[in-house]
């Protein structure tokens, strides 16, 4: 290859560049897939992002080349190398959720789906080339790392001695290390925004109900959302264009009808997206947790950059609203509010039924029996903290019935009522916060990521978009997260894109 070949700069390769390269014959889909598979072979032994490689990836790429040569219509992600988070069902691969008890290769039982999850089906239909499935911690239980996965820890390619973020640790690492161009992630409590921010990437945590999450191992049907992680805002928006919208398999997505921009999310991006926009800033009105000294300095610089891009900044617009008082970490956890997750047993039963008639486990009772050796809900289990939630005990007594969750519903209503009032009263277009209060903790240790928006966004169902905003002295990434009311993804993406093109803070990993 000549030095001008774009396949020699995988970090700079975007969905738009792939479209152009395939159309003008600069490279083929097969060559593109080969380049990324070579990157996987070179780095995955160290980074441990991908746990199952798709042996049919090159076959898919060759078929795309054949169809292109024949002048056939192609999908919007034609030839784009993509990875899929392990808990998302994908035909031909076990869905292990990072747990040795759910993988035959480590002595457990395989959950083999009869059909793809809707999000996997959508990226297939968009003609993406799926390269593999990515690593997660056991049952996606932590937003900081994947250290307890049966596949071993995932390493942060940007700063290897720090946590990679979780639970979509492998997806983010695959994107950051240029093993793919975009990846599918999923969040219940920070699992998109944390790894994206930890690895200097763009993550979209959508409004709940925008993207279907049927066929994804659940923690909470009331909070779980699927979204993309990418190296640029444009690529993340293009992926969201494919993922968003109604699916009959997930009735809550009916709420997205009429909420998606007619031309798609990427079409609305503009370098002027911050001009004249009123942006609310982090303060004790949102959460009564201060920023570290270095985070404060980085945030101050980011605020200056927002103003230089034309934004009007509003200091702590939630002051005096009682918003911060609603937050209540779930004991014994110090920082995570798990309310809404009481339905996990019922949700798991729904997930297992979808696997199909030949599934190894079909009910929650069978799931509990198969995993009794490491009871996730028992003393010392990864989800043992759920016993502190008000409706959990009743929900576990009959996992076949959905729990009412009155406290969660009231809490969600309070969050949304305050957000709507604050945005109206201050005529806000978005909030822009540091996604973390301090820099990343060590890879191996007891410290967890100290985020600013996990819990509030997950319980309220609000969208957020992370974007690189600099680095700590250690080299750890610093990121902003743009937050808005329900269904405000288009506005948030435009603002994040404007900030991205004005600052260009992201650095290539490795």
TrEMBL record:
Domain Amidase: 32-313
Signal peptide: none
Classification via InterPro entries: Amidase_dom, AS_sf
Descriptive protein name: Amidase
Record organism: Paracoccus gahaiensis
């Amino acid at each position: 290859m000549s030095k001008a070949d774009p396949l020699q700069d995988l970090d700079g390769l975007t969905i738009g560049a792939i479209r152009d390269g395939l159309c003008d014959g600069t490279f083929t889909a097969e060559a593109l897939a080969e380049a990324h598979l070579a990157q996987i072979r070179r780095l995955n032994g160290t980074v441990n992002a991908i746990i199952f490689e798709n042996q049919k990836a090159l076959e898919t790429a060759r078929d795309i080349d054949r169809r292109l040569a024949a002048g056939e219509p192609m999908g919007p992600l034609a030839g784009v190398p993509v990875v899929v988070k392990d808990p998302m069902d994908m035909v031909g691969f076990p869905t292990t959720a990072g747990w040795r008890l759910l993988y035959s290769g480590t002595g457990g039982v395989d959950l083999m789906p009869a059909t793809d999850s809707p999000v996997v089906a959508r990226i297939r239909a968009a003609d993406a080339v799926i390269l593999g499935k990515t690593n997660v911690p056991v049952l996606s239980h932590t937003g900081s790392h994947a250290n307890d996965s049966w596949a071993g820890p995932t390493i942060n390619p940007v700063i290897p001695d720090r946590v990679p973020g979780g639970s979509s640790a492998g997806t983010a690492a695959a994107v950051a290390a240029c093993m793919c161009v975009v990846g599918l992630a999923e969040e219940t409590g920070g699992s998109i925004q944390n790894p994206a921010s930890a690895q200097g990437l763009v993550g979209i945590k959508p409004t709940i109900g925008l993207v279907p999450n049927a066929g994804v191992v659940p923690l909470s049907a009331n909070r779980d959302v699927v979204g993309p992680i990418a190296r640029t805002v444009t690529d993340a928006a293009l992926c969201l264009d494919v993922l968003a919208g109604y699916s009959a398999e997930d009735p809550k997505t009916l709420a997205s009808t009429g909420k998606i921009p007619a031309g798609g999310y990427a079409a609305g991006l503009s370098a002027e997206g911050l001009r004249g926009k009123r942006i609310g800033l982090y303060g004790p009105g949102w959460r009564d947790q201060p920023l570290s000294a270095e985070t404060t300095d980085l945030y101050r610089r980011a605020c200056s950059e927002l103003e230089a891009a034309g934004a009007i900044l509003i200091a702590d617009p939630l002051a005096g609203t009682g918003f911060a008082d609603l937050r209540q970490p779930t004991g014994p956890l110090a920082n995570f509010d798990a309310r809404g997750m009481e339905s996990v047993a019922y949700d798991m039963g729904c997930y297992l039924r979808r696997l199909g008639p030949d599934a190894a486990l079909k009910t929650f009772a069978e799931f509990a029996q198969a995993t009794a050796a490491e009871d996730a809900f028992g003393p010392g289990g990864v989800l043992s903290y759920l016993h502190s939630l008000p409706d959990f005990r009743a929900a576990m007594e009959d996992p076949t019935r959905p729990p009412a969750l009155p406290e969660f519903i009231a809490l969600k209503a309070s969050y949304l009522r305050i957000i709507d009032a604050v945005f109206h009263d201050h005529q806000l277009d978005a909030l822009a916060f540091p996604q973390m209060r301090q820099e990343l903790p060590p890879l191996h240790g007891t410290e967890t990521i100290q985020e600013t928006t996990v819990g509030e966004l997950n319980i309220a169902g609000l969208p957020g978009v992370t974007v690189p905003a600099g680095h700590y002295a250690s080299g750890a990434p610093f990121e902003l997260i743009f937050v808005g009311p329900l269904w405000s993804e288009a506005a948030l993406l435009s603002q994040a894109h404007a900030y991205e093109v004005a600052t260009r803070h992201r650095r290539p990993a490795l």
